[in-house]
Write a structure and sequence with these properties.
The complex is a heterodimer of chains A (about 300) and B (about 350).
Chain A: H1 4-34, H2 41-59, H3 63-86, H4 95-98, H5 101-126, E1 142-145, E2 148-151, H6 152-174, H7 176-186, H8 188-193, H9 198-224, H10 233-246, H11 251-271, H12 274-291
Antiparallel strand pairs in A: 1-2
Chain B: H1 3-32, H2 35-60, H3 68-86, H4 90-112, H5 117-137, H6 139-142, E1 148-149, E2 155-156, E3 159-160, H7 164-186, H8 189-199, H9 201-206, H10 211-237, E4 239-240, H11 247-260, H12 265-281, H13 288-303, H14 311-321, E5 326-328, E6 334-337
Antiparallel strand pairs in B: 1-4, 2-3, 5-6
The chains are: A mainly alpha (about 300), B mainly alpha (about 350).
């Protein structure tokens, strides 16, 4: 018989992993189409949480409305981010400059700069201290399942994330938008030649990816009851680790690695203090980079 | 213009900079005699050194380094722990901090140096965060979030240099020596070899440049200088805590190099001065200081992709005005780095 404590940690880890997975998908989608890393993705998560908080304190709407407003805020954030930090650096569209180091690094730095601006802006607007949504919105009511005590949030996060993953799968395989996203990430120049509007597709990718990130933000915020401007940094890094472990462009890989990461982290808190538990993710990242440079699930895409 | 004219022209700018740093600025500081101005000048110089060391690894060698502040922190913690646990003074902690930071960087570089571009950036980010977590969580050794009070100020062989002007001069001398060393590293055949790796490492490899070894050397050297900066910081402020060495500090240093111009040492110095002095000048704006860092970085990437003083113009400036290492024929034509 397994100690119920570990079962509980496993369940918490799965729901934690699901939020990482939502974040990691945003990273993966954007890396797929543009071949660049979006360092402002963590701020999208924060923006989602703050949009939810503002709506809750202004209107006290039902739960579903909060989720939808977070999604909308995420979509708007993704759109603005793409226009501000990525579009200006896509002046040249030939394949050589799309893959060039200079272009990647300038967008990497510009997204970093935008993330600083957003975080500091939120700090000015809301203060850097932790804010808590009203108690009736928190999703951490304990639920007893057999010998294990879980929170409602564990189920809600797992359910919403699973629904969003299924929705994403539908979007990517059954709709025109999704097909064009896949086409552009497969071969940007080829997609352009067959008449796909790459610019529009890139915007759509940012919108979809950022919606996932914002949903993760509001769900985690309601689960832990803590909203603050720097909240996106750590999940952003974890999601990034999951993406690299999963092989940079593989969505199933990123999801599986995010779950592995979430579970191993919550298991680690059984043995370590929570401060050291963050080491697990960084350790995984370094080990993956050294021993599986193309990721656990990635096809060998280019030299690392 | 004859060769002798060029020779004097080549000394004019270094002499002017030396005068500014060692005579004009201290005179101005002494005239105002406010502790705050000394503090700002010292912090600016330490960040000039950090930015210059980042310039070596990110600008010249082209390795995007997102964990530089952690090596700075390793240096600062080495100095602080050597002082509090072993009672060593600044004379010994200064070189030892540099060496310990370099050693840590060397160990880190062994497995990660074969990674390229974004993978390397991510690895340095993770390593920077791991070092930060160690500083934050190993409470028995580093005192964790409480930080360490560094009991000894600046001194040299027991001779105290912790007065306002004396500490300014100490930091200025150390920083200037390091800048000269970094300048000789980046403006020489050695620097050119690093630049060739940055432009195309496979091509450089094929032409006989030992890419991995050179990258490791650049990474280690840059950590050495960051460690020196850390020791200066620890002894100058007298108190260090993990918050001084977190990810946002790495980004601040990176922003300095980017704003100044990747690959340009004068640019890195200017960028550091700008990003330290501008927020200090805007202190009246209160909370908006940190946003300025982001805005300056964003606008400079957008409108000045080469930086304030781009690499090409910086190299021309260095060759013509600071060109102690730039060899010329008798009729004044430059023929290469010495």
């Amino acid at each position: 018989m397994i100690d119920p404590y570990y079962l509980q940690q496993l369940a918490i880890g799965l729901s934690l992993g699901m939020t990482y997975a939502l974040m990691a998908i945003g990273f993966t989608l954007i890396f797929g189409v543009l071949n660049v890393v979006n360092f402002a993705h963590g701020e999208v998560y924060t923006v989602g949480a703050f949009a939810g908080l503002v709506l809750i304190s202004a209107l006290a709407p039902p739960m579903m409305a909060v989720l939808f407003i977070a999604l909308a805020a995420g979509a708007a954030a993704g759109f603005t981010l793409e226009r501000l930090a990525f579009k200006p650096f896509r002046r040249f569209t030939d394949e050589a400059s799309l893959k060039s180091r200079a272009m990647r690094e300038s967008t990497l730095l510009s997204s970093l700069a935008v993330s600083i601006i957003v975080r500091e802006g939120l700090e000015i607007a809301f203060g850097s201290h932790m804010q808590s949504p009203p108690v009736q919105y928190l999703i951490n009511t304990p639920v007893r399942v057999g010998s294990v005590v879980l929170a409602t949030g564990d189920f809600i996060i797992f359910g919403v994330s699973a629904a969003m993953l299924i929705g994403l799968q539908y979007l990517l395989t059954r709709t025109r938008v999704g097909l064009s996203i896949r086409a552009v990430s497969n071969n940007p120049l080829g997609a352009k030649y067959v008449g796909i509007d790459t610019d529009r597709t890139i915007i759509m990718t940012f919108v979809v990816g950022s919606m996932m990130g914002a949903a993760a933000g509001i769900l985690t915020a309601l689960y832990y009851g803590a909203i603050f401007p720097a909240m996106g940094f750590v999940p952003g890094i974890k999601a990034f680790v999951a993406m690299v472990m999963g092989g940079l462009s593989s969505i199933p890989g990123a999801v599986i690695c995010a779950l592995i990461l979430g579970v191993s982290e919550s298991m680690a808190t059984a043995f370590l203090s929570s401060g050291w538990a963050d080491m697990v993710a960084y350790g995984f990242l370094i080990l993956t980079l050294i021993f599986f440079p193309s990721g656990l699930f990635g096809a060998g895409r280019e030299r690392v | 213009m004859s060769a002798s004219d060029r020779k004097t022209g080549g000394l004019l700018v270094p002499i002017a900079i030396a005068l500014l740093v060692f005579a004009v600025l201290p005179a101005g500081l002494a005239a105002f005699d406010r502790g705050y101005f000394y503090q700002v000048a010292n912090v600016a110089m330490i960040f000039v050194l950090l930015s210059a060391s980042m310039h070596l690894v990110t600008g010249v060698a082209g390795l995007l380094h997102l964990g530089h502040a952690a090596f700075y922190g390793v240096g600062a913690y080495t100095a602080a722990l050597l002082t509090t646990k072993l009672g060593l003074g600044f004379t010994w902690t200064l070189p030892l901090s540099g060496l310990v930071a370099a050693l840590v960087a060397f160990l880190v570089a062994l497995p990660t140096m074969r990674l390229v571009s974004i993978y390397f950036a991510v690895a340095t980010l993770a390593i920077g965060q791991m070092l930060y977590l160690v500083m934050l969580n190993w409470v028995d050794f580093t005192k964790g979030p409480n930080g360490i009070i560094v009991t000894k100020g600046l001194e040299l062989f027991g001779f105290s240099l912790s007065g306002r002007l004396a500490s300014y001069y100490t930091i200025a001398v150390v920083v200037m020596l390091c800048i000269v060393a970094i300048s000789r590293l980046s403006h020489s055949y050695y620097g050119n070899a690093l630049r060739s790796i940055r432009e195309d490492d496979q091509c450089a490899d094929a032409m006989g440049v030992r890419t991995i070894r050179l990258k490791m050397e650049a990474f280690t050297l840059s950590a050495f200088f960051a460690g020196i900066a850390g020791a200066l910081w620890a002894h100058m402020t007298g108190y260090i805590s993990p918050g001084d060495f977190k990810f946002s500090e790495s980004i601040l240093i990176l922003a300095m190099v980017v704003v100044g111009g990747l690959g340009s040492l004068p640019g890195a110095v200017i960028g550091a001065l700008l990003l330290i002095l501008l927020p200090e000048g805007l202190r009246g704006m209160g909370d908006f200081r940190n946003i300025m860092v982001g805005l300056v970085m964003f606008l400079s990437i957008l409108f000045l992709p080469k930086g304030l003083l781009g690499e090409v113009s910086a190299l021309r400036l260095v060759r013509q005005q600071l060109g102690a290492a730039w060899r010329r024929t008798d009729n004044g034509i430059g023929i290469g780095w010495r």
